[in-house]
Hints:
The structure is a homotrimer of 490-residue chains. With 490 residues, the first copy, chain A, is mostly helical. Helices cover 67% and strands 2% of the residues of chain A. The first copy, chain A, is built from 20 helices and three strands. Chain A has a three-stranded mixed β-sheet. In chain A, helix 4 (68-90) packs antiparallel against helix 9. The longest helix of chain A has 30 residues, at 402-431.
Amino acid sequence: MGACQSFREMCDRTKNTNIRFSLPAVCVVWQSAMIILFGVFIRYDEEADAHWVEHRKANNISSDIENDFYFRYPSFQDVHVMIFVGFGFLMTFLRRYSFGGVGFNFLIAAFGLQWALLMQGWFHSLDYTDGKIKIGVESLINADFCVAGCLIAYGALLGKVSPVQLLVLTLFGITLYAVEEFIILDLIHARDAGGSMVIHTFGAYYGLSISWMLYRPNLDQSSSLQRSVYHSDVFAMIGTLFLWMFWPSFNSAIADHGDGQHRAAINTYLSLAATVLTTFAVSSLFQKHGKLDMVHIQNSTLAGGVAVGTAAEFMLMPYGSLIVGFCCGIVSTLGYIYLTPFLEKYLKIQDTCGIHNLHAMPGVIGGIVGAITAAAASETVYGHEGLINTFDFEGEFKYMVPTVQGGHQAGGLCVALCFGIGGGIFVGAILRLPIWGDPADDNCFDDEPYWEVPEDEESVPPMLQYNNHFPNKDVVESNFTVEQDARTRS
Amino acid sequence: MGACQSFREMCDRTKNTNIRFSLPAVCVVWQSAMIILFGVFIRYDEEADAHWVEHRKANNISSDIENDFYFRYPSFQDVHVMIFVGFGFLMTFLRRYSFGGVGFNFLIAAFGLQWALLMQGWFHSLDYTDGKIKIGVESLINADFCVAGCLIAYGALLGKVSPVQLLVLTLFGITLYAVEEFIILDLIHARDAGGSMVIHTFGAYYGLSISWMLYRPNLDQSSSLQRSVYHSDVFAMIGTLFLWMFWPSFNSAIADHGDGQHRAAINTYLSLAATVLTTFAVSSLFQKHGKLDMVHIQNSTLAGGVAVGTAAEFMLMPYGSLIVGFCCGIVSTLGYIYLTPFLEKYLKIQDTCGIHNLHAMPGVIGGIVGAITAAAASETVYGHEGLINTFDFEGEFKYMVPTVQGGHQAGGLCVALCFGIGGGIFVGAILRLPIWGDPADDNCFDDEPYWEVPEDEESVPPMLQYNNHFPNKDVVESNFTVEQDARTRS
Amino acid sequence: MGACQSFREMCDRTKNTNIRFSLPAVCVVWQSAMIILFGVFIRYDEEADAHWVEHRKANNISSDIENDFYFRYPSFQDVHVMIFVGFGFLMTFLRRYSFGGVGFNFLIAAFGLQWALLMQGWFHSLDYTDGKIKIGVESLINADFCVAGCLIAYGALLGKVSPVQLLVLTLFGITLYAVEEFIILDLIHARDAGGSMVIHTFGAYYGLSISWMLYRPNLDQSSSLQRSVYHSDVFAMIGTLFLWMFWPSFNSAIADHGDGQHRAAINTYLSLAATVLTTFAVSSLFQKHGKLDMVHIQNSTLAGGVAVGTAAEFMLMPYGSLIVGFCCGIVSTLGYIYLTPFLEKYLKIQDTCGIHNLHAMPGVIGGIVGAITAAAASETVYGHEGLINTFDFEGEFKYMVPTVQGGHQAGGLCVALCFGIGGGIFVGAILRLPIWGDPADDNCFDDEPYWEVPEDEESVPPMLQYNNHFPNKDVVESNFTVEQDARTRS
């Protein structure tokens, strides 16, 4: 076995993680393409354009405060925090992959949102009078949402891919997202304000399928690099809490003005609260001595937000939100305990962050809850105008009824699943090409291959750091030995 | 002494911190109760209900932007951050209790806000036409406020109680809060937008009384576990800063629309700024060599926000806010230097986070400042309508005058004190029962009893991690061995 | 060389870093002065005053939601987070200067904002009817902006100055800022909503000039204290991300209501996204093995926000923003690689955080971009009213045209440069006086002189911490020895 292992290591060593040319090339070329495409296609919408004053007067809008900016900008900023700090820090839990977790998250989100503005713009906000995409604050929120799908996928692959692979994953992920979103929201006419289907189900299955395609049979599961240290777990809690706190903004960010946003925030707030209690319960119950596991607290507490994504803007009722949260805390935590090892062992899906438990299952639950809530809607509960507004029964969907809407919702869920799995297999095949600079098995979950990692001199006691009079400087640098010498000598 | 110690240790060992059944049981049963009670009692208010469109038209509200959501949601999110990240990270300062600090804070806040919606709802927003509680964004803010009282109490007990005890503390704390709040705000008609009395005074004395009831005479004060490490102090600064920055939102969140919220934010901003300077001054002046103490910077800088809680919405004047902040920085820092050791030694009150200095004293000061400011109010300063709006001199309080209002404010402060102390003694007595799984003295301030703590390999210097050639593996450390084997064999 | 070094050390030892009297004296006296000046000068403006109800009715303002509070408060809170958490945590990257980074940032910001309210008030919002400064939420934002200039300057001096020096730097910095801001915005009539010139160019050259005056020729550049450790780099990413995410709020916070704020947010969002990609590209391309450098990721990714500060509210167009961001990522990262060492070696400017790359160059670029964009403005693009509103062509500037405005913008940039460099040399001369308690060369970049630093016991392996049975307790406390004994013995 020793020979076998050293052979494997040798093979791995031949893996080239040098991305000195590929990463800069991809970044610069793609960013240049963005500039050209933005120049050709993208302009401000009427609420962000300097012509707004005239537009306002022409439309009898009495005050600047009715600019959509004031309806949505606070929520946008909360969503922005979730994308960069929330997802970013949630991925810092590994002891030696915090740079990669938060740094690559930053990179792919910054690229993804530009590409998302274009892709979503072509499908949703193309102004046919002049062939331009008109963007405003709602476009920015949608771009952030779109990016979220790819960041979820990154969760499954954390520590096992190169930044170039991540950029490729993002390019295709955003493209697929924009298409499935168009099909689900516009063609099928499903509603999905918080993206249980469009974002979470799609993103999670996209990531899991790629992980399945990139299966690493020899990855050392007992490696200490796959575990956390005390402080990295605390860092990850920053991510968890910002996701948890701002999820009500996520689910309400693009809901209808007025009661739509208001209700979506309340439902999400309640669902998440319930999830926390059942997560703590299951985490303690299934652990030896009843000790809580940080992995569950960091992740499963968020499942309730995923699962009310679709139904948050509906009249789910406060107790309905609590029930959804209650169930998802249990399902998600049990997923970490039983399902993640099962997926790895039998289905060959390595899921670093456990996105199957945090996004895939709760996303599917969210789609189903949305379908049921939509099907059960009635004029008694929503009011005549309320029903039309909430489900957008206008234009070509004027004669739609709630029960049929429920079916459409279910259809949307299937589309998200198909795009996730199909797209993931396709993109996974591309990412298997041996040109992307991905790390060897032994270098997985380690920042070393892609980052200048500072030497950690904490272990040298302060006094030595400041007053050393050792003749041989090199020895002093190799920090421990000297101290030890000094002590054994004394 | 060695024998004595080992005897004590043996006794402690008999303490059972296994919460494998009690914690899950409490979480699941209470959460189920919440679902039932929410089902029976809680509905959306008219601004979050799908009937809003009709309501809006019937009431001649010209735009969706006048939905209370847009007045209060940004402040709500700031308050939410204070509760979960602010309080949570402020409690991560202990070297080995960061999981418990941020994690249990998370748990009890998530439970507390649900129970608070019910308790506050019964007292404040019960709709007598249908017997339902109607909730909106203001209810969510009030629930977060209510939770803050319990989190303050947790500060005194940090590291010395089990999560089950904390949930019991929260259940009773929320209940007491709702009652005292009803008495103070509705019956006595005191004003307390930022909760100097209702939240801080009550919460702090509630926690201190419980701590007095749970006094641990043999707690090793010299234990290194009661101190911080470098990084845990930096983590705690995250909590400090988010509390400090968002305190203007806290004090203005439920103030009157328009000038009320505006003024409350300005006053709090100024008071907090002044507190920072006097905290730094006193911290440096009373320390050997003038070195600053992180404990003061982390906590006392916040005292100014507590102390303008009541008066923030009044015409306290900018210089008035500065004066309050100036004094509180001094009082609070001196409290940490002189009062906390005194309380522990002579009054047998162990106060882990020093909430007496951060919440109790500034809260009482805030109540007094509020009473004086109210008594000094006049139509010259407030204007006729301004006076009525600010102090709500309407309905049965139509003939109230400022001087009398000042007396009512003082009365409110007394009620908060009584509920805090009385409630704390009562709940403390319950928590002394030997059934809650609290830790032994030796296990206090340690995450070990309730959390799966990752082994920390940081202590092994990098070169050893990869190239160690020590003959005796066990000494080098268990978790390493595997990796090492692999390498030496190859 | 050993003799030389020990002589230098001896000289340094004579440096007195004891600030036990100077720091408290400055804090208390200055804070008292603030209280008096606020008492004499500062009152609430009409939107924060209790007379608002009457004002609203008299001015036919239909709803409380049109109070400026609701237009600007969410942006204000984002800016507030940037000042305290953004700048604060960005400066925690040094391994042993995190307390000083985040703590002194806190201190000088809290003092600076008070002084800024006064200084800016005298120049901008003095009500000549009663001789009072009237403050509202926009004043708070402007005060935070003013503070940002001084915090940028602190970045160049990080780790090399005492808190008393920092307070002096802030006092003069705020004063200079208010004067140059008055000249640039009011006299020259340049526009600078995001402060590329007024904040960044001024602040950066102010700090660099002070650093040049305080040059320390013997500072040990190889000192490990000038480097980061793994966790301190992750802490710094908290600062980076909050600055990055909230920069759209920074540039739009005081822009015109409606389309002005909306457009400024979109432009900043896009520019920052482009910067991330080129920063990653250059960082990888110029590093051996293509490894990314955390210093670049932490800092250069922000350059795009600086550089659209002036032009963000103009019709820069989405692709224009991307181009600005694209260039600044490259310029800024190259600055870190080539210019910072050059500045230190040949110009004797020691720039700890590299503010020349993050603020100075992008600030100047921002000023130029602003001038060009303004000069290119036309009624076709802006509309008649849009042009007047955006550039404020009203009152005495009624007959201004865009091309001339471009010249004025360029003039503004020159003023900012002159004030920065001139002011910095002047203040630097004052700070060279040997009375401020600044640290010796050997104590630079170390929290030890000004903070009670907790002993770090992390190096003791967990098993020793909890089960030690060593006879000699003192030995156990001096953490390393035991572990080592165990090793050498075995």
